[in-house]
## 1
Amino acid sequence: MTGQAMRVVSGIQPTGGLHLGNLLGAILRWVRMQDEAECLFFLADLHALTVEVDPTQLKANVREMAAALIASGIDPAKSTLFAQSAVPAHPELAWLLQCTARMGWLNRMTQFKEKSGKSREGASVGLFTYPVLQAADVLVYNATHVPVEEDQKQHIELARDIALKFNNDFDVELFVAPEPYISGGTAARVMSLRDGSVKMSKSDPSDMSRINLTDSDEAIVQKVRKARTDPEPLPDDPALLTARPEAKNLVGIMAAISGESEAAVLARFAGQGFGAFKPALADAVVALLAPLRLRLVELRRDEAQIDAFLAAGAERAATLAAPVLAGAYRAVGLRA
Ligand code: ADP
């Protein structure tokens, strides 16, 4: 980027707590980005409505996720942290953009096909148009960069297509087409501890498949000890891990935590079995998570403080969004 400050926008759904996959794959990278760019992070509570939610839980989940992010190092003084639903500019702009996006574009989104599964006809319309709200989430702030994982690349492309078509249709220079942002360190894809071929996820029915931010030290040690592995010792060459997904996953977790390459981890453990590797890995995970968990426990004691952080963040976000939203209304002829 030349001449323009970098502004990063990203969101996370406030469903369930954080797990090691979220932390290593997304949140701890966000934490590092705070020193590289102006950052806005939001709890995507409107996106959460695209599938069934428990209305009695939603507000509490937003607060809990905000506390988890702050405990993990998102600093409300450095970054703008807020709930999406507290900034109506998101859904307002999303409506205008739904009239720019084409059916054909959304029909090509692979995530809808995955998420709706066999019940395409029974899926909510919101689940189908979700990528347009996502486009609004970033375009409303003129985000220059959006941190992306592999499965979200298509959605950034869509946001870029919408931005360019809107600018073109209405002959304005309003929206910035955001670039994917791959920084803040390597994005680790953390796999289930029970099956190296599926990602660690909060929706996995087995709690033993994931390490949660709220797990005790003992639970972490036990989950690592019971993690599925193979009987071979660790190799000295990362290429030899390709056919051993569970071993690769554990080595990858160690590398992501220590900031080393897989090769550097293997240089330390080559020739040793999991009996030696797992205790070292458990120590590393505990050392990473225990301080965050303690901060989370502390933060949860003061809900009013969390709400105050979110309110201040929402106010700042709304101020940043207002001129872009007004520009969009003007462009389509609804405001002078
Ligand atoms: P989940 O899959 O547990 O439902 P989300 O879809 O809410 O998690 O993801 C929140 C963020 O965490 C996203 O940026 C996503 O890419 C990242 N993430 C989720 N699971 C993993 C994982 N196993 N490894 C790496 N990143 C992950």
Note: The radius of gyration is 21 Å.
## 2
Amino acid sequence: MAIEKTYSMIKPDGVRNGHIGEIVNRFERAGLKIERMEMGMVTPEQAAANYQEHEGKPFYDGLISYITSGSVVKMVVSGEGAVAKCRSLMGATNPLEAAPGTIRGDFAVDVNANVIHGSDCLENAEIEIKRFFG
Ligand code: DAT
Ligand code: MG
């Protein structure tokens, strides 16, 4: 494994429901480092680019309107195998399948509003860091 950087984002429900501190704490406890962190909105353009692979699916419109519906916390997270480590701390996409002890397993109730985003591979991590931090 090597030191990697990944992009993670606490989604609007995670912010609204007060999970920022807990999530940052879990990342740091797992040995990951918060390199950059910024609160703000996701623009419709950023949302469309980030979820391009889902265009045309039945949940696409809801996904875009949800992710642009309120403040998010954008983060660059680094560490040994940060991409996979972040994904494993997040848990499965569907909260019904997310294991207890994972962020989604503990805090998500809805497959769309599922608390947190994390890049799914190193290549997308680089693209997403540029997309959200310029
Ligand atoms: P992940 O966020 O775990 O990488 P993904 O890339 O498959 O999952 O999907 C992106 C987001 O789209 C996901 O976090 C929530 C939403 N989503 C995925 N599948 C969905 C579904 N069947 N119904 C509603 N929203 C869904
Ligand atoms: Mg994904």
Note: The helical segments are 12-16, 20-29, 44-50, 60-67, 82-90, 103-107, 122-133.
